Amino acid sequence: MYLVLVRHGQTSSNVTGALDTGRPGAPLNDRGLQQAQRLAARWENEVAPAPTTVAVSPLTRTKQTAAPLCARYSLTPLVRPGIREVRSGDLEMNAGISDIARYMGTLAPWAQGEWGVRMPGGESGSEILTRALPVVHEVLSSVRRTAGEDGVGVIVAHGALNRVIAATLATDITVNLVMKYRLENTHTCVLELPHGHDLNDVSGLIGAFHAKTWNERPLDAWDVSDDVTMSLNNG
Question: How many domains does the chain have?
């Protein structure tokens, strides 16, 4: 069974670098809308087999990104607050390098399992997982019911959240990988869950996946040496 994490298309806040994590958030700009159309058109050739279940966050940009994909495959997306972006708290809508570095720097401990660390004025890693993992579980359970072990679940979400989810679910997604290389807009991370994996326990998803790709490329295509330079981009 596959789980595909998708980052939404480009917004004006992505262009300016603003930490835009509130609701409803900036909509896709013209480039973002084009990216969403291309994502749907290239899905089976470049990403994964046809999707079985799609979930999106309540933020406008994820719903717009998923719309062409869902239309192409006649799916109705699940709208789930649990996969909204990591809230930036005291840093909301700031675009300064130091503020973005503080935001992204908080993700690194989470990606290493240090979930008690808290975003300034925002959420802890534990709170992120408490809201996000049940959505992952719901998507996978829906896929198994509908298409069995060969189905494909899709979560259309956000740059920071996808980094945390990927590093939590797959042991071969390292902190160096997710902090050094962002998911570009409408790019994907493909994770594979072993056939027959027990879905009765949400916590059993942690570390259960094998990563096939990050940002559209196999894992061995990325330099994950220890001299990590953070990619200061979220959303």
Answer: 1
